[in-house]
Amino acid sequence: MKILCIILCIILFQNAFAQKENSNIIKGNELYKKGDFSDAEKQYSIALEKNNTNAIALLNKGNALHKQNKYAEAATAYSEALSNSKNTLLQAKAAYNKGVAEAKQQKWNDAVTAFKQALKLSPNDAAARENLQKAMNEIRQKEPPKQQPNNQPQNNKKEEQQKKEQPKMSKQQIENELKKLREEEKRLQKDIQKQKTQQYNQEKDW
Description:
Elements: H1 22-33, H2 37-50, H3 55-67, H4 71-84, H5 88-104, H6 108-121, H7 126-142, H8 152-165, H9 171-205
Helix pairs in contact: 1-2, 1-3, 2-3, 3-4, 3-5, 4-5, 5-6, 5-7, 6-7
């Protein structure tokens, strides 16, 4: 299986809005930068308890989950961030990261959908375009090969069936058929000889 080469875009928003849950997002970001992804996830979850539609907390939680290889949960967080945000940049990153999380699970159709959405939001995103192509290639490789039309086996089967259906002739029947052929041949020879004689006589008379 070809490994999809990806670059995970980590966007840690912390001062975009002066919201009451901001302090937990800031704490989460600090922990994230230190590599403490589990505790960072907890801080983002606390922020979401205060406001479950906070797109920044959802996106950053998705990133923390992704770092812990919890790809299915990360994809869910990215989807929620995408649907709860009106910020195009945040939406584009959420869609892109969702595509990466789906690709990690080899859910190539879902990855393609997410990367297409990311490109719609950010048409100049080269990484999204590259990963979209790779995900589509994975889908093509998994498609069963198209069967080439081959009528030969069917024809052979029909011939064999016809042979089976034909009654076998006995030795006596074969001899009778040969006798008929010999008699027919003699008759034809007589007719030919008769025609030659008539032709000769006509020429002579003339």
